[in-house]
Hints:
mainly beta; Porin; 18-stranded antiparallel barrel; 56% strand; globular
Amino acid sequence: MSTRGRSVVAGWALLVGLPGLGSAQDAGLRLVGELRLRGEAERPVVVDTVDAFTLLRARLGLEATLSQYAKVFLQVQDARTFGEEASPADGSADRLDLHQGWLELARPVGTLSFSVRAGRQELGLGNERLLGPANWTNTGRAFDALTVGLGSKARGWQLTALAATVDERGRRLAGSVPGPEREDQLLLGSYWDTRILDAWLLFERAAEYRSFYGADRATAGARIELPAWRGLSAWAEGSYQFGNQVLSQPATAQDISAYLLGGRISWARPTSPLRALGIGIDYLSGDERPGDADYHAFNVMYHTGHKWYGYLDLFLDPAGKTGDRGLVDGIASATVQLAPAAPLAIDLHRFRTAAQRPPTCPGPLPCSSSEEARDLGWELDLTLPFSIGPNQRVQAGYSAYRNGAAAPLAGLGAESRWYHWGHLMVTFGFSGGVH
């Protein structure tokens, strides 16, 4: 049996061996659900027509409390686009799936709290910069994983360890690519969360993305949040990636060395109509020569990118979108209270590439090429969420993007063209005991 196989067996042995599971007949049941409907309309820069579509996501979950220390959660999800099945008689439900299904054991250990959760589950660490459930997308994200937590509420710290199988590639249980046995793609990690300082270490083995494979990549980082002072608050974070991978065409072994830096400074005044102002920057390193033996473009892994790099989601994979040039995102934000339960969020992004290709001058003639453009463009996001009742939310938004000189490098169309997008989203949630 492989090392990974022994660790999984040991994890399940720990689960079934703990006392106090109780019987299913005595389980307390709670039903939870969510229905989310979102209409979107967009006019990209590459066409002059408007495309409108509607997304529907329905989730239904059942939580069973088996004992004082154990509970089970099962959640079914259906995610669809109106009209995707092309026939009202089509009942195939291609995106009907088990979104979550896990067993959790939690109990105190002295003054500490200890928990183990095994099964399909959403994973989110800290601000979700590297690992998050991507809830804005219609399907979301869930992992087949084992997580272990240890913490103290009184002292304000939590330590989380996780192990997830992203792609099972064994001969017996062939994953996404059948054929000869290859290493399973795994995600391992730990996260230390305190009131002021967070720190993390994530390791992904045998990852494949775009034209790269065999990526054994570690990401280590920390985030510090300063105490608020007279309405001012600030935080800063950094992550460093290292490891190795293989570029497929042409086949090239590469050493990974990349980094991310980010920070925000904000001012809040709850009694003023102008509730908050903020500025910030995110810098994701890029590579001037991504085909050589050293690779410097930062990989955002399994982040919740929608909350970081603009609501248009043009840079969900910053390295891939910019041809491994990386991304610099300067942000200015404000919140205006239009009504007691209706804060208008205003976010302005200025995007640039972090690296640029050196001028290429083929032939014997003197080089007269100018430096490659780096300005990707500007994005304005206006978002208005408000509540219409308990667990009932409505959100409206509009975004506009103006291309910069480097926009063609990212496939965004010609310079100075505009991208327009709007959405209206309604979310209804419910929960209650089952009798």
